[in-house]
Amino acid sequence: MIFIAVTMGFFAESLRERINDHDKEIQYMKTFTQDLQTDSANICLSLQQLNTNRHVIHELIMLMNSPQKAANGARMYYDARLSTRNFTFHTTDRTLTQLKNSGGYSVIKNKAVIDSITAYESVVDRYMITNGISLQESQLLYPTMAKLFKAIVFESMVTDNYTNYYAEGQPATGLK
User: What share of the chain is helix, strand, coil (3-state, %, to 5)?
Assistant: First the structure.
C-alpha cells in the first residue's frame, strides 16, 4: 500500500511538473513573440534612419561639389546636421534573458524553436556589431564637420525637443 501511494505521488508530481513546464513554455513563447514584434518595429525604424542618412549624405556630397555651394549653405548645414543622427536599435531581450538565467530553454520541447531563437540571437549580435561600426563612422565625421561648419550654427538649428530645422539665411561653410 505504501509503495503504491509513493509511486502514485511520484507520478502525480511528474505530471504536475510537466503541466507547469508546458505552461511556462507557452508563456515564454507569448512574451518572445511580443519581443519580436517590438524588435521588428525598431529594426524598421533603424533601417529607415539608415536609408534617410544615406540619402542625406548623398545630397550633401552633391551640394558640396556644386558650383552654387554658397547659395546652398542652409541646406548643407541641415544635411550635415542630419547625417550624424542615428537611431540605435536595442533588442527587447526580456524573454531571452529569462530563458538563459532560469534555465528556461529546458522547458521548450521543440528543437526547431530553440534553433530559431539561437539563430535570432546570432543575427541580433551581428546587427549590433554593424550598428556599432555605423556609430563609430558617424563620430569620425565630427572633426571634418568642425572644419567645414560652424558649431554655433548647428546649435542654433535645434529646438528644445531636439527637432532640427534649417539655419537662417545662407551660413558660410569652410568650403572653397
Answer: 75, 0, 25
pLDDT confidence of residue 176: 62
- What is the residue extent of each domain of the chain? 2-156
C-alpha 152/C-alpha 161 separation (Å) is: 18
> How far does CA 56 lie from the centroid of its chain?
20
Q: How far is CA 129 from CA 80, 83, 89, 134, 138, in A?
A: 24, 20, 11, 9, 14
| Among the listed residues 81, 87, 74, the one whose alpha carbon sits nearest the alpha carbon of residue 155 | 81
CA 174 to chain centre: 34
Tell me if residue 168 falls in helix, strand or coil. Answer: coil
Mean pLDDT by 10 residues, the chain (176 residues): 79 81 89 93 87 90 88 88 80 88 86 92 88 84 86 82 75 72
Q: Which of 86, 64, 93 is nearest to 76 (CA)?
A: 64
Q: What are 164's strand-pairing partners?
A: 158
Q: Which residues contact 20 (CB under 8 A, 6 or more apart)?
A: none
- What are the residues facing 158 on neighbouring strands? 164
